[in-house]
Each structure stands twice: as structure tokens, then as C-alpha cells.
């Protein structure tokens, strides 16, 4: 964590506590300052050393905040913040993880009922105490109860998009350590699961203790949880990282084992038993005439490479994303594995936002960003007005026509193809928030649900998919990982309708969503649908998140031909105008 991040986090905590106390306006100023400091190119500790005036030159950072920043770097804390913490000794992060519970609610519940933790929140809700508090009702109380478990679990798992950068950093750091012959990520991170319990790193080396020591010296480490001879666990940036060191001869077997998933491993082990073989983290062993239950007993037939482990079981090697026991063991045995889509197959993005709605950049900047990332084309799909488009971020139809003219002007000078478009809201009844004649004028129409995201959403999305001008169903379930589960969907039925109507189903690559997820993607493709991997970029920096979507597509066994935006610009034109 950079020191800019560190102080920004403190200022956000400040804002939450002020909110909880019912203070107006100030919290927003603290949040804005936090954001600007976090994004500021210069190191904040350097500016703070020059004094409050220098810190105050950052946009949105006034006198009160700049002096607190200086105080923090001089004394290691902010007195006023410490006082607020003492006044409101609540576990803000855990409590606000419950959907519908914000800092203000936390403040009220502390004042009225003394609630400081999730357990106390649950007890109060179960006892019916929350509905008695002014401003709350039975419905709010039930909502809290419904969302509590989700918040608890959520609290323990990290988003793939947050964990992956740490994983890749530790992997490249460990690969350079003396005596390390091989190094790889394992576990859910290697399978690109949307959320991660912990990061698993595997090293093949004979010099185990020195390797463990180098690992605990990794500069990102905040705290060492445990360190033994061949394994260690640390916390880094809020993520737990587990290291295991094995001898190079057993690296392949260990990698296969620690990649998982558990269910995949069980299926693999059963296949081994049928062949009088035993597979474990040390290797594959022929146990046809072995009584001994020693882990390494029997003749060792594989273990140095992962390919070798699968080969010994008469299976083809399969990409880690597939290892969820969804039929991949059978497919690998039949040599019938799909040729999965790769990051480099993707040629454009069909879902992006600009400052016309809630994005941060102009149309021209987003187009340049897409070109710089290497795309051949990009669609500009700002939010249209509609329910759930809070804060007036949606663009009304009249303005969309103006925007269309600007998109066309930018397109003339652009190095890549630029498609006009919109992200229309899909209402609860399946209706769209944009007039039909306007939809017909745009190249790419994304239709997505944004509100009323519980219960079954199949009819609603089927109606949208049947609309003649809708090309993409955006983030179909509307889920927010760790926050809300989103709509229930009969994916097969939706996918059949989408296929019949030339509508693609989105894999939204935003790490907060990854929607559709891998299991649903597999069902959708089996039912004949085309998917499209979009970032929903709100700034040019978001384009690189496409990889999370591509690996989600791979979790759904997608081949390049299943993914709309592996086609060239003419291929997209054909798809949307058909
Ligand atoms: P996570 O960390 O909860 O996101 O999920 P994983 O899959 O990374 O699980 P983790 O870190 O507990 O263990 C890493 C891998 O090690 C796991 O995917 C499969 C393997 N593994 C761990 N415990 C067992 C076990 O009891 N049986 C089997 N067959 N495999 C296991
Ligand atoms: Ca793990
Ligand atoms: Ca682990
Ligand atoms: Zn969007």
C-alpha cells in the first residue's frame, strides 16, 4: 500500500465516522480529498514534509484536511480521528458490508442499540429490536437478516481483481529468489475464480528454508502469520498468501494438487484408483502390489510436470480455469477439450462509458484509450435514463442524439472503428428506457438490469433479448460480488432466445461483477448463445480489466468463435445489423 493509499484510507474512515454521526457535507469533502490524494502522482509524504500549504495545492484538499494530513505524517495519527473512533467504537467495515447498511445506519444503530459488530447486529435483528428504532421498519430488519450471511462470507473473500496483482507480484518476486527453480500460482487464483480465499504460491527448490525466509522478507508483507521449514503464510495488502516449497521432482504433482479445485482433484483421484494408481501432492504411483499406505509408496510414474501427471492417467492437460469438475475430467480422458479463447483473441470492447453519463473521460479520450490498449474498435454506450440510474447519470434521448453526432465526429479522426451505442436500462417488465426509433439509429445497444435485482429475472431479460434492436444483454444477473447475488436466471432459456434473436450475452469483466460467471457461461454456450467480453470501462485504465472477463469466459469453456468481440469490426457490424 502506498502512503497515498494509506492516508486516503484514513480520510475515508474519517468520512464514514462523520456520516455515522449525522454530520452533513463534510464527509463528501473528505471522500473527495481521499480520492484525489490516492490518484495524485506525487508521493504524499514528500508533500506533507513541505507543509500544509503544499498539500493544500491538491485539488479538493482544503485547509482542515491538509493540516490533518501533515499531522498524520508527523505524529503517526490524527487526533480528531482517534476521538471519533473512541466515540463510535464500531466495526464499520464489517457492518457496512451488509447491503443496505451504510455509515449513517451504523451510527443510528450504535446510538439507539449500542450495536458494534455483525454478531450484535444479528442478535438485535432476531430479537426484533431494529424495527422499533425510528426510521426503521420490519422490512429493513428482514433485509438485514437476509443479507447478513452474505456479508459475513463476503468479508472473508477477496475479489479476483484485488488478489491477482498481489499474486503476480509475489510470483515474479519469488521466481528471482536464489535457489528457486520453478514458481507458480495455484489454488483459486490460478483457476481465476471471481473471489479468492487466499493466494497460493508454489515453489520448486532444494533450498527450502532460504526460500521461506526470502518469502517472509517480500516487501509487500504486512504481517507473518506462520513460517515453517517448507511453508509459510503472510498477510499482504489485506490478502493472505500461502507459500509451499517442494523439491523440483515433485513440483508438477504439487502444482496439480494445489491448483484444485477440491472436486476436480477427487474426480482425478477416482480415475487413478480405477487404474491401480495413486495420485497425491507427491506424484503418481503404481500401487498394484503395494500394501503400505505411505504417501510415496509404490513405483513413481509421474510428478515432475503437471502434464506428466495427467498423462499418467491417460488424460490431456487442461487449463486450470476448467478444473471445477464440470465435465473436464471426462473431456480430457476423451481428448475432447475445447480450444479456449485467449486474451489476445479479443479485438474490441462493446460497453464503455464517458463523462456523458458516469464515466470520467471524454469520448475522444476513451477512443484513444481503446486504441492505445490495442483494440480495433470500441462502442460508446453511456447510460440512458431509467429507474435505478440514481443521481441523474442517465442521458435523456434528446442528449443521446447530440452525443451520437459527437461520436460520429470523433470516429472520423480516430485510428480505430468507433461504434455509437447506449446502455439502456431493462425495467422490471422488460421494457427499455430509450425510444425505439433512437435505438434503431445506434450501432450497439446494450440492455442491462440496474434495479429490482432480486427474484427471477428470466422473463424480463428474455423480453429485452427479443427486442429487434438490442444487441447485448449487459451484466445479466446484476450481481455485485460480495454484495448482492443478483437475479436468478434460467440461463438456458435466456440463451436460446438470445441465440434465436442475434443477441449476445455479456461477460462483464469488471472485477466487482464478473457477470455472467463461468458456470452460466458454459450453460449459455451449450444452449447456442454467443457471449461478449466487455469491460464496462468508466476510464481508459479499465480496458486492461478485459483479462478477468476472458478468463471467466475460459471458466465457461468458451472458444474464440463463441465470443463476439474476437471478430473484426466488419464481423461486429454484421452481427448488430443483421
Ligand atoms: P480459496 O483459497 O478458498 O479461494 O480456494 P482454493 O481452491 O485456492 O483452496 P485452498 O487455498 O484451500 O487450497 C488450495 C488447493 O489445494 C485446493 O484448490 C485443492 C487443494 N486442497 C486443499 N485441501 C484439500 C483437500 O482436503 N483435499 C483435496 N483433494 N485437495 C485439497
Ligand atoms: Ca487459495
Ligand atoms: Ca491456501
Ligand atoms: Zn455500463
TrEMBL record:
This is DNA polymerase beta. GO terms for biological process: DNA repair. Its cofactor is Mg(2+). Its main location: cytoplasm. PANTHER family: PHOSPHATASE YCDX-RELATED (PTHR36928). Residues 1-324 form the DNA-directed DNA polymerase X domain. GO terms for molecular function: class I DNA-(apurinic or apyrimidinic site) endonuclease activity; DNA binding; DNA-directed DNA polymerase activity; exonuclease activity; phosphoric ester hydrolase activity; zinc ion binding.
Amino acid at each position: 500500500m502506498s502512503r497515498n493509499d494509506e492516508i486516503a484510507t484514513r480520510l475515508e474512515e474519517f468520512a464514514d465516522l462523520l456520516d455515522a454521526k449525522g454530520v452533513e457535507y463534510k464527509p463528501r469533502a473528505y471522500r473527495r480529498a481521499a480520492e484525489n490524494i490516492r490518484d495524485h502522482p506525487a508521493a504524499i509524504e514528500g508533500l506533507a514534509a513541505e507543509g500544509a500549504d503544499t498539500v493544500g495545492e491538491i485539488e479538493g484538499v482544503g485547509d482542515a484536511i491538509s493540516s490533518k494530513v501533515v499531522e498524520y505524517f508527523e505524529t503517526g495519527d490524527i487526533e480528531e480521528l482517534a476521538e471519533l473512533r473512541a466515540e463510535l467504537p464500531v466495526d464499520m467495515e464489517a457492518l457496512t458490508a451488509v447491503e443496505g447498511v451504510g455509515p449513517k445506519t451504523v451510527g443510528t444503530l450504535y446510538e439507539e442499540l449500542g450495536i458494534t459488530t455483525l454478531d450484535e447486529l444479528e442478535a438485535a435483528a432476531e430479537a426484533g429490536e431494529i424495527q422499533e428504532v425510528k426510521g426503521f421498519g420490519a422490512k429493513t430488519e428482514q433485509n438485514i437478516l437476509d443479507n447478513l450471511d452474505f456479508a459475513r462470507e463476503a468479508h472473508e473473500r477477496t475479489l479476483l481483481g484485488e488478489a491477482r496483482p498481489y499474486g503476480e507480484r509475489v510470483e515474479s518476486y519469488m521466481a528471482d529468489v536464489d535457489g528457486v527453480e520453478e514458481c507458480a500460482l495455484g489454488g483459486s487464483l490460478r483457476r481465476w475464480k471471481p473471489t479468492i480465499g487466499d493466494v497460493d504460491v508454489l515453489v520448486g527448490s532444494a533450498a527450502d528454508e532460504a526460500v521461506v525466509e526470502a518469502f517472509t522478507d517480500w516487501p509487500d508483507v504486512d504481517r507473518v502469520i506462520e513460517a515453517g521449514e517448507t511453508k509459510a503464510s503472510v498477510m499482504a495488502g489485506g490478502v493472505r498468501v500461502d507459500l509451499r516449497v517442494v523439491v523440483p521432482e515433485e513440483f508438477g504433482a504439487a502444482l496439480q494438487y494445489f491448483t484444485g479445485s477440491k472436486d476436480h482433484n477427487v474426480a482425478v483421484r477416482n480415475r487413478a484408483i480405477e487404474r491401480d494408481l495413486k495420485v497425491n501432492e507427491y506424484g503418481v504411483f503404481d500401487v498394484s502390489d503395494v500394501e503400505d499406505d505411505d504417501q510415496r509408496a509404490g513405483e513413481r510414474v509421474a510428478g515432475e510436470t503437471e502434464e506428466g501427471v495427467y498423462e499418467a492417467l491417460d488424460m490431456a492437460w487442461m487449463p486450470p480455469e476448467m478444473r471445477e469438475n464440470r465435465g473436464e475430467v471426462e473431456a480430457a480422458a476423451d481428448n475432447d477439450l475445447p480450444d479456449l479463447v485467449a486474451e489476445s483473441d479479443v479485438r474490441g470492447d462493446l460497453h464503455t462509458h464517458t463523462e456523458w453519463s458516469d464515466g470520467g473521460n471524454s469520448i475522444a479520450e476513451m477512443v484513444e484509450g481503446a486504441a492505445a490498449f490495442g483494440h480495433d474498435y470500441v462502442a460508446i454506450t453511456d447510460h440512458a435514463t431509467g429507474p435505478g440510474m440514481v443521481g441523474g447519470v442517465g442521458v435523456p434521448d434528446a442528449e443521446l442524439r447530440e452525443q451520437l453526432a459527437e461520436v460520429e465526429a470523433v470516429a472520423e479522426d480516430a485510428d480505430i472503428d468507433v461504434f455509437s451505442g447506449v446502455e439502456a436500462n431493462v425495467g422490471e417488465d422488460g421494457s427499455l428506457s430509450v425510444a425505439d426509433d433512437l435505438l434503431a439509429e445506434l450501432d450497439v445497444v446494450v440492455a442491462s438490469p440496474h434495479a429490482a435485482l432480486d427474484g427471477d429475472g428470466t422473463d424480463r431479460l428474455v423480453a429485452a433479448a427479443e427486442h429487434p434492436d438490442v444487441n447485448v444483454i449487459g451484466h445479466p444477473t446484476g450481481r455485485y460480488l460480495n454484495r448482492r447475488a443478483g437475479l436468478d436466471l434460467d440461463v438456458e432459456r435466456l440463451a436460446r432466445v438470445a441465440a434465436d434473436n442475434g443477441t449476445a450475452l455479456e461477460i462483464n469483466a469488471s472485477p466487482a461483477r464478473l457477470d455472467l460467471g463461468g458456470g452460466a457461461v458454459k450453460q449459455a454456450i451449450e444452449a447456442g448463445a454467443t457471449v461478449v467480453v466487455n469491460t464496462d470501462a468508466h476510464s481508459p485504465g479499465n480496458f486492461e480489466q478485459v483479462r478477468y472477463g476472458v478468463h471467466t469466459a475460459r471458466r465457461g469453456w468458451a472458444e474464440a468463435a463463441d465470443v463476439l468481440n474476437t471478430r473484426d469490426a466488419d464481423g461486429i457490424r454484421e452481427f448488430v445489423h443483421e
